């Protein structure tokens, strides 16, 4: 509609109002249009004040604290323009007709959008605890039509009216649940002016992520050796179960003030940090390790002491590691630092840093091991280190009956093992040949035994320290040999039987002759007694 047409329409409306408000029995009246107006903050509005009084000397107008200008007028009406309206205001149209004053009171309501809507960023919240989400709003009018809503994502949670203070706060209380971790919350302002003939207006805060955590009451488990030897590297690890969310926890592993480079592995509700520590000469003594796990703004700390120590192995000395049998050998064991030593087979005595042993060696001592053990007490535990030396005794070749038996008797066709081992240091060379044809002695597994190996063998062991010999006889029993043995045994049995019979026969003859001779002698003695005269009384 063109501006001229709009102006003509307003004049026609005012004329109509004036006609409707002609003086009647009730006297002059004052009216206002619009009676209740709502405009945006800083906006302008035109207010028409009219009266039914038609007297020339009447007085009427608009009473307000706002800036106003009269933009149009007629005999019984005035139009005032109010501009740059910042606050709600009360308007009064009045008229004085022949000394009688009448008035009409109206209202001017200002609406405005908030300057801002903010959600205070929620910090980490412990699981299972109540916490608050606070929405702040600055500006916004009229407050009676202004409410604050809390949204989780696009899901409305709660709605509360906005108080009148400036700036205003609306607090929502919630229970920290694990399923809410990582959820996006926002505050949304709703200005509902539909009852005033306007629209429904919205404004929203920036979204904010909620973070929920669970940190157990237990401290981290710090697994570390109590003692670390200088020059060695050892692993340490720090772990904690019952975390949520475990992937967002951080770990600080340090030796004293020195941070340790570490790797972290996460489980669904746990983590483990692994690092290595190395002992150096500069760090000998007791140092502390610290493991600090941080989740949200909470920390869990465990410390442990670690002792770094130096422990060289003991010195074990054989004055003559290679000797001939019959030689006296000296063995010496010595510790370093504060360690004490024990030399096996040395005479018993109080622990010390040195131990000695002397012995006259024989062939049986060849390859004998001497062990020196050093003990050092570190961090309440006793540590040990050993050194071993082997003695070499030189002796001539030996062919013992135990290691090279001289007689073997086997049935033909059986499976047997023929042993012949020569001993000596240096190791002797063994040569066994059969008498007559010089065949080699078949040392080892015989599968099967054959009659061809039977015979007498001359075994000789040679080394730079002498020679040893042994005669080895191998007998193989086969069928012909068995018959000869049976015949020989039978002959022996027969001869033995005949010899026994002859012995028994001769024994009996001797006994009979002895008994006869004894009887004869007795008879002769009796006869002599009879022939001898009696002695006179």
UniProtKB/TrEMBL annotation:
Instruction: Please state every residue range assigned to the domain named Immunoglobulin.
Output: 34-111, 318-394, 405-477
Cellular component terms per the entry's GO annotation: external side of plasma membrane; extracellular exosome; immunological synapse; membrane raft
Keyword annotations from UniProtKB, A to Z: Cell adhesion, Disulfide bond, Glycoprotein, Immunoglobulin domain, Membrane, Repeat, Signal, Transmembrane, Transmembrane helix, Ubl conjugation
The record's Gene3D superfamilies line, in alphabetical order, gives: Immunoglobulins
Can you tell me where the transmembrane regions are?
483-505
Name the family the entry cites.
Belongs to the immunoglobulin superfamily. ICAM family.
Full protein name: Intercellular adhesion molecule 1
Q: Which organism is it from?
A: Catagonus wagneri (Chacoan peccary)
Identify the taxonomic lineage of the organism of origin: Eukaryota, Metazoa, Chordata, Craniata, Vertebrata
Give the encoding gene's name.
ICAM1
């Amino acid at each position: 509609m063109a501006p001229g047409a709009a102006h003509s329409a307003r004049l026609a409306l005012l004329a109509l109002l004036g006609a409707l408000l002609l003086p009647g029995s009730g006297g002059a009246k004052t009216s206002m249009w619009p009676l209740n107006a709502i405009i945006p903050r800083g906006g302008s509005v035109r207010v028409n004040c009219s009266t039914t009084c038609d007297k020339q000397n009447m007085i009427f107008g608009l009473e307000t604290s706002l800036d106003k200008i009269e933009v149009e007028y007629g005999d019984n009406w005035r139009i005032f323009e109010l501009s740059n309206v910042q606050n709600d205001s009360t308007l009064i149209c009045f008229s004085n007709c022949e000394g009688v004053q009448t008035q009409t009171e109206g209202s001017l309501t200002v609406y405005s959008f908030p300057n801002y809507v903010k959600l205070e960023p929620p910090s980490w919240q412990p699981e299972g605890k109540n916490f608050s989400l606070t929405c702040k709003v600055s500006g916004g009018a009229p407050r009676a039509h202004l409410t604050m809503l809390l949204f989780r994502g696009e899901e409305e949670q709660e709605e509360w009216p906005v108080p009148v203070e400036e700036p205003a706060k609306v607090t929502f209380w919630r229970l920290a649940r694990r399923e809410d971790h990582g959820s996006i919350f926002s505050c949304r302002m709703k200005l509902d002016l539909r009852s005033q003939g306007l629209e429904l207006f919205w404004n929203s805060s920036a979204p904010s992520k909620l973070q929920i955590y669970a940190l157990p009451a237990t401290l981290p488990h710090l697994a570390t050796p109590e003692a670390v030897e200088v020059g060695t590297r050892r692993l340490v690890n720090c772990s904690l179960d019952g975390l949520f969310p475990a992937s967002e926890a951080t770990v600080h592993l340090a030796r004293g003030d020195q941070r340790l480079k570490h790797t972290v592995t996460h489980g669904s509700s746990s983590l483990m940090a692994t690092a290595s520590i190395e002992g150096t000469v500069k760090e000998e003594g007791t140092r502390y390790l610290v493991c600090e796990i941080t989740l949200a703004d909470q920390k869990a700390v465990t410390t442990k002491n670690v002792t770094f120590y130096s422990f060289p192995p003991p010195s074990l000395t054989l004055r003559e590691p290679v000797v001939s049998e019959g030689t006296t050998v000296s063995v010496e064991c010595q510790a370093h630092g504060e360690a004490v030593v024990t030399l096996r087979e040395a005479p018993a005595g109080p622990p010390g840093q040195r131990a000695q042993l002397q012995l006259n060696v024989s062939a049986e001592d060849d390859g004998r091991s001497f062990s020196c053990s050093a003990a050092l007490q570190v961090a309440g535990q006793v540590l040990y280190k050993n050194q071993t030396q082997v003695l070499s005794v030189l002796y001539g070749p030996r062919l013992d009956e135990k290691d090279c038996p001289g007689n073997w008797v086997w049935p033909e066709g059986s499976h047997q093992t023929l042993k012949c081992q020569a001993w000596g240091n240096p190791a002797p060379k063994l040569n066994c040949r059969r008498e007559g044809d010089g065949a080699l002695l078949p040392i080892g597994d015989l599968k099967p035994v054959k009659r061809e190996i039977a015979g007498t063998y001359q075994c000789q062991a040679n080394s730079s320290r002498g020679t040893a010999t042994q005669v080895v006889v191998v007998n193989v029993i086969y069928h012909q040999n068995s018959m000869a043995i049976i015949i020989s045994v039978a002959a022996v049995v027969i001869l033995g039987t005949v010899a026994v019979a002859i012995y028994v026969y001769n024994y009996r003859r001797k006994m009979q002759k002895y008994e006869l001779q004894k009887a004869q002698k007795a008879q002769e003695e009796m006869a002599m007694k009879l022939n001898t005269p009696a002695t006179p009384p």
